[in-house]
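Researcher: We're teaching a course module on how sequence relates to structure. For the next exercise, students receive a sequence and then see the predicted structure as tokens, so they can try to spot secondary structure elements on their own. Here is the exercise chain.
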Amino acid sequence: MTPSQTAPAALRSGKVPASLLTRSGERWFATNAGIAVLRPANAALQVLSLPGNNHNATEVFPWNTDTLLIGTAGNGVYRLDLRSGGMANARFDLPSTPDTDIPWGNVIVDIAPRDRHSAWVASTSAPTILYVPEMHLTTAKEFANAPDPFTQGQVSFMRPDPEGRTWLGTWRKGLYVFDPKTGTCERTDTSGGPFGRLASRMMLDWLRDSKGRYWLGMNDGGGLACLENGRFRAITEVSGGNVGGVVRCLAEAPDGTIWLGTHEEGIVIYDPANGTTRYLNRKQGLPGVRISRIHFDRSGAVWVCTSQGVARMAKNAVGFTPIGLPDGLDMTDVTGALAELPDGRIVSAVGKYLVLYDQRLDRSIATAPHAALTSVRVNDLVYHDSIPPEALRMKSAQKALTLELGAIGHAPHAAVLFRYRLVVDGADWAFIGSAQRIDLFDLPTGEHLIEVQASANGVDWSADPAVIHVVILPPFWATWWFISLMVAIVAALLFVAFRLYLHERLRKQREAFQREQAILHERVRIAGDMHDDLGAGLSALKLRSEMALRVEKDPAKREQLGSLANTAGDLIGSMRQIIWTMNADQTSVEDLVVYTTNYARTYCEQNGLSITVEATGPWPQAQLSSEQRRNIFLVVKEALHNIVKHAHSTSVGLRLRWSNGLHVELSDNGVGLPKGTEDAVGNGLRNMRKRITSLDGTISMIGENGTCLRFQVPVAGHP
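Model: And here is the predicted structure for the students to work with:
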């Protein structure tokens, strides 16, 4: 170790009785004044102090390729020549105020370019100009006539723009702008101004992006505002609040998004293209969530100063890597001053010291550390050295699985980033930052392979992940044997229910059949009784009437006896029709056709009409109900009666055929139907229509050139 003139990098004492080289490459020295540590990353760090300065460095600004301007919290501005190490100081010779020992005129909060020879320097009490070659500070007269003049402790930043204007942010007074073209200084705050109305009077940072828009970060919940088309517009969340709340610093990323460093919420990334926001915090490896500076370097990496140290996230990385400090420096002393030098080094302020970091010399990030599982917890059961080499089997009731993580091959005190995934098709890595614990709840039943990787920078990840195989056992009601048993029980119940259903259905069918048989037997009995008793009596009555008619000479009595004989004959015919309807032995379509055609021939012959009968078969083996046979026959009978009574015809045509049901056509050569006959009340057609429609059939009648009656009756079970 080479002794350094700066305390943080030097041995605490020249007497070193012992030293130790650790596995991570660190060298520990035991000195008479305490322990000193030399880490591999120290080769990339250079610590500089400012002679005669006892105040924190608050701002660093690269003036040219080899010169730094450094603002302090009470000792003005330093100019540092990086090649020779030469320094110069510029400060106001001002006494401290009576109520504080802070020399406000020499507290520097911002440095910005003014021209080739001078820079804007914002001290907390007033805007000033630094003439760099002479290292001379003078008050900026441009803001001397500003409205509502600001006092000590109220200046927060000074920034020029391409139009030559200078923007000055204050604490409690709003935003000022000096325009050299008009020589005027104007102000914008919560009550309005030349650029509209702001959400707060407490200005914190200013940014001009690559598209020429101006962004303003504010305190007191003012959040973020954007100056477009000459007016400020507040940037709000969907909930209505201002984005970022307290925005301490601003930066534009290479992709055009605006990064906001907040007071307590980490980093807010705002996308102007779609108005969306997302947050970065400790889950992404940030050491702290109070952000004082954000900077994107030439490689696309982002550097962040937090209340707990400096962190870096490489381009395309998903997490931050804290930057270690040399022994003797405290990460909590990071002030927020950070800049990139022309040679690519990053300079930041830690207390009153400057730390220059050269990533090319940092050997600590050359390889990624290896992730390791230090313990596994399943509910209250903890595995340490006894982690099962085979699959870890968990019951379904064990909902909580916790994996404790560690890493091998990384420098102590250097944060390690972790990510994990459940190995399935297309599974993405879940980034958990520097958290060393994974909590998994309610994993689904089945086998799960969990992989864990570690990284030092969020870009390079360990090639060999730590792996654990977990099997979640199904509950008893989800096991194959339980499901099979339930299926068997359900099948048995369905079989028994089906058997009971069939038994009940057969019982009802048997009872219905028995009732039908009883009805048929009763009909046969009634038909037999009618034939034997009524038929014999009516036949005897008709015979005696005809015999008496032969011997009777009185004309009046002969008419009565003839009427009595005809009535007895009609009753005998009606009884035969009723008996035929009730007869269960003549239920086929062919039986109906034969009976109907025979009746039609006999009836026409008795009434002096010639008849032509066409009965085209074959006839189906369909069984007709008594209602079907009775209604079809009575319709034909009623039609024949109407022909004899009204048609004055000499011939009749009867045609029966089978085509998707029984089709019947009865025609005559009579006088036809008068107009409106089908609608006449009392006409026989109404009764015929009711009989056919009760059988789901259709009927029609045509009364031109005689009368033609057509009807069709479907038969169940046959098309």
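Model: If you want an answer key for the exercise: Residues 480-551 form the longest helix (72 residues). The two ends are 110 Å apart (CA to CA).
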